[in-house]
Amino acid sequence: MSLLFLxxxxxxxxxxxxxxxxxxxxESRDECGxxxxxxxxxxxxxxxxxxxxxxxxxxxxxxxxxxxIFSVLDRRKNISSIIQTLDxxxxxDWFTSASKNECSAAIGFKWMLxxxxxxxxxxxxxxxxxxxxxxxxxxxxxxxxRMVSVxxxxxxxxxxxxxxxxxxxxxxPEEADALSKYKPVINSTSLIHDLQExxxxxxxxxxxxxxxxxxxxxxxxxxxxQTKLKQVQEFLNIxxxxxxxxxxxxxxxxLSDHIKNWEDINKTLNGTEYEKYLRADY
Length: 282
Ligand SMILES: *[C@@H]1O[C@H](CO)[C@@H](O)[C@H](O)[C@H]1NC(C)=O
Ligand SMILES: *[C@@H]1O[C@H](CO)[C@@H](O)[C@H](O)[C@H]1NC(C)=O
Ligand SMILES: *[C@@H]1O[C@H](CO)[C@@H](O)[C@H](O)[C@H]1NC(C)=O
Ligand SMILES: *[C@@H]1O[C@H](CO)[C@@H](O)[C@H](O)[C@H]1NC(C)=O
Ligand SMILES: *[C@@H]1O[C@H](CO)[C@@H](O)[C@H](O)[C@H]1NC(C)=O
Ligand SMILES: *[C@@H]1O[C@H](CO)[C@@H](O)[C@H](O)[C@H]1NC(C)=O
Ligand SMILES: *[C@@H]1O[C@H](CO)[C@@H](O)[C@H](O)[C@H]1NC(C)=O
Ligand SMILES: *[C@@H]1O[C@H](CO)[C@@H](O)[C@H](O)[C@H]1NC(C)=O
Description:
Mean pLDDT: 87
CATH topology: Rossmann fold
Radius of gyration: 19 Å
Low-confidence stretches: 1-14, 20-29
InterPro entries: Nod_factor_sulfotransferase, P-loop_NTPase, Sulfotransferase_dom
Keywords: Membrane, Transferase, Transmembrane, Transmembrane helix
Order of helices and strands: HEHEHEHHEHHHEHHHH
Oligomer: single chain
Family: Belongs to the sulfotransferase 1 family.
Protein name: Sulfotransferase
Strand order of the largest sheet: 2-3-1-4-5
GO molecular function: sulfotransferase activity
Structural class: alpha/beta
Number of strands: 5
Bound molecules: 2-acetamido-2-deoxy-beta-D-glucopyranose
Number of domains: 1
CATH class: Alpha Beta
Helix content: 40-55%
């Protein structure tokens, strides 16, 4: 009955939804006590494909990835509230629509670098290493495309282009088209600096967590290379399966179609190390 309830929940809410029903599943964990549970955290940045990636992982019946739990400010106010929250997740006391059953072989959540992760990196690395939490870094190779997505998503927060509802992720090409009609203007004065900042954050995060067991995955590679997702499943030590997501990419095709001041941006990046981002797909 509980599984049926949860799969209904999953269908209705493709993104992870928190359900606070404590002790709901715990009693039967004993049955599967022999199944080792692996802990992971997806470390990423906003608009890097982590929502999509998480729905892929959650389509595996041995994975429960519990969403962006540190989007709630109270949980990341200080290191004590962070540790308390982590304990609840990894003590299997955290229930969401992604919770599969007491046999889940891999349990985790996604965590954006700017949600207290970088600021408290020392203590978090200690925690991860002490409890055996593995990190899955998910980054985008093309920070310019990510920037378009960040600007468009924050515009939609108040514009609510889909019939008055703000959506960060969509499930049909029609919805994707409606959202991508809006073309953001990119600040060309700060562009190079902003791209550098994004790359620096990723590099710094990798350096901070270099003693933690980890894998680095790029969104673009997940899309173009089937083997990548297999590699992630092997990293999590779960049976390799075909994973699927109902999410549809919002900004498809040439980047020149998605930036209002394209000529300006093209000129700004012409001849710089970032020039390649103007043309790259995805
Ligand atoms: C940490 O934050 C929590 C939640 O906001 C608060 O209740 C607690 O007093 C804070 N603890 C410290 C040591 O600041
Ligand atoms: C994966 O999930 C299935 C179905 O719940 C379960 O029977 C199996 O034991 C799980 N595998 C592992 C490695 O936990
Ligand atoms: C808005 O709602 C109408 C009626 O429900 C529907 O036909 C249409 O596809 C929706 N448009 C978008 C962009 O979601
Ligand atoms: C663009 O960036 C520059 C440099 O950071 C800043 O001074 C300016 O205010 C920004 N323009 C807009 C419209 O935000
Ligand atoms: C991790 O990064 C630090 C700081 O750059 C460096 O001193 C250390 O040698 C690195 N450790 C490993 C295991 O790579
Ligand atoms: C796909 O990913 C696998 C695993 O990382 C790698 O070994 C392989 O070279 C990649 N293939 C291509 C075409 O990039
Ligand atoms: C970008 O600018 C270059 C010249 O620097 C031009 O050849 C190219 O067609 C432009 N690209 C697009 C997609 O507008
Ligand atoms: C792009 O840069 C080259 C030199 O690197 C220059 O000759 C060309 O005029 C530039 N194009 C534009 C559109 O600025």
